[in-house]
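Homework-ish question, so no full write-ups if that breaks the rules, but can someone show me the predicted structure for this set?
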Amino acid sequence: MSSTSPLIHNFSAGPCILPPSVLQQASEAVSELDGSGLSLIEISHRSAAFVEVMEEARALVRSELSLPDHYEVLFLQGGASLGFLTAAMNFTPAGGSMDYAVTGTWAKKALKEAKKMGTAQALTSSEDTGFDRIPALPPTSGADAVHITTNNTIYGTQYAGDPSVDKPLVADMSSDIFSRPIDIERYACIYAGAQKNMGPAGTVLYIYDKRRAGQTGRDLPSYLDLTVHADKDSMFNTPPVFAVYTSMLTLRWLKSEGGVAAMQKRNAAKAACIYAEIDRNPLFQGYAQPDSRSVMNATFTAADDQHTPLFLEACTAAGINGLKGHRSIGGFRASMYNALPLSSVETLVEVMKEFERTHG
Amino acid sequence: MSSTSPLIHNFSAGPCILPPSVLQQASEAVSELDGSGLSLIEISHRSAAFVEVMEEARALVRSELSLPDHYEVLFLQGGASLGFLTAAMNFTPAGGSMDYAVTGTWAKKALKEAKKMGTAQALTSSEDTGFDRIPALPPTSGADAVHITTNNTIYGTQYAGDPSVDKPLVADMSSDIFSRPIDIERYACIYAGAQKNMGPAGTVLYIYDKRRAGQTGRDLPSYLDLTVHADKDSMFNTPPVFAVYTSMLTLRWLKSEGGVAAMQKRNAAKAACIYAEIDRNPLFQGYAQPDSRSVMNATFTAADDQHTPLFLEACTAAGINGLKGHRSIGGFRASMYNALPLSSVETLVEVMKEFERTHG
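A: Not a homework solution, just the prediction itself:
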């Protein structure tokens, strides 16, 4: 963000706000990398300079999430949408199956892709109540793993922590990774598109238990085989250089700000601020059930439908960007990723209060 | 490149040199996009601003390559390495097969991935002569399409034009797309990683004949089905925003410089300059057979092995970057993509002449 521009409160659902210092450093690297005379994006990915970037990014993921040595870290491409397939391919044995907790649009898509390459079924679903809650996970019935979507951006729901189930978890954490500490040993695999808490669009993070990988008995295509990428230190082919570099910068920022424990506190404070106003203000109502509310994406609607465009206008006038809800449920969505300051949430709450005064 | 830095002649094989004006504009957009108060990488990919970028990038590919309306243009992820699989999946009918011209390392990899999802076989190969030439394409024998790698970066060989065969071509053009006009109607599909002539690493271009797509009878995973992406205007999932934007900038530059016809002339002049010196200078010898030489990557070796490190030192001293040959064949490789000026090639030739004077 340019310092000469008016302040914008960026509630975009993703790609989303990144720390201003990260944007500045990324911009400088595209012009010239560390005084090298060359841009970040015109050097070989095999150069010492970029190999160091990739290794630092992987090491920061490891340190910030306290990963044991038997977990691998990769930065690949294709987003979580290719991750749906890749995760199922690498962690469902030939002849085996995976159970899916269907908690929203992305979970449904994950299940759909898994069905294209093997056996996969819904273990539970909250579709009949409009995905307004996170259902408890029942015991599995013979599946090899359980797939969850830890945060559901569209509906504004989130698992309160790491679920306890009788099988290893495979998780799409695209929209809440690095928002809190995780109990990593519960997971066989975590995958996450970068463009929420980790960096810009263009790379997807895979974290997986090496002891559980390469065990499916399947002959996988190279790009979809996580062990192929691991054998090449996440450089099987040309990586998405800019996205990895900017993710590395964002992870440095995360560390400097106190890491995931500090983020958890900040995110809780932001969520408490917005949900308190949603519950208090008679002109608005929350979408997600209170015990399933997301700290990343608060979804709410206007009690009076005619207020919806008026409130969005009031937000725009206050410099609030990206508050329009997803077309699936309408209304409003306040995405409050790690880089969003509490002051932006406070501004939104002020606009809600003022809207009550003028339209209540 | 910063104007305060010493001039570097960037012969990197890829990621590689991009036009200085593109680097500057990309850097500015990461700081702030068009006075919006927001960075390019923190806005929604569904915003009007980014949808316009994607549409301009696709339109520029169409106009600069003179594509008829029945060709589709997509910007996806995974590089050509995932393209090997995607191209075979989308253009080999279930029960059909594809012939491969094996002209180098990347062609071998393409064939390997194709074999994982169906029937594929070598139509011809130059492996027995160290991939030092482009063999003529024999008639096919029942295959549905013929796969070629139009330019072979490691060995420095290239098809002189668009081959004439009795089946539609499927081509990996990662390292020479936009270097010359193409006879598009010969191709069912072209795919190309961006990081040579088109932009930074992180996106891969697909161009294909819509009339031939979706005809395989296969139930493809969504991300690997080109028709799924086409139905969503190349926004099936979050695109690699920075890579698409910077490719769009590079395509604008290409257009402003006179397009692919102008590039063809420039590239021919650069290639003539370096090959004349390789043939003249007794201290060096070309690797590729003269009639198969690439205008993008000139490969050569020192007549005396002991000269190899000395010549690389001389190049470094002259500000020449990225000249070391690929480990497969050693020696030197001068990559001369669109953005490399003739003056850089002239500098390299001067260093070769000086090396002859001091070491001949």
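Now go work out the reasoning yourself. Hint: Chain B has two domains: 22-256, 259-359.
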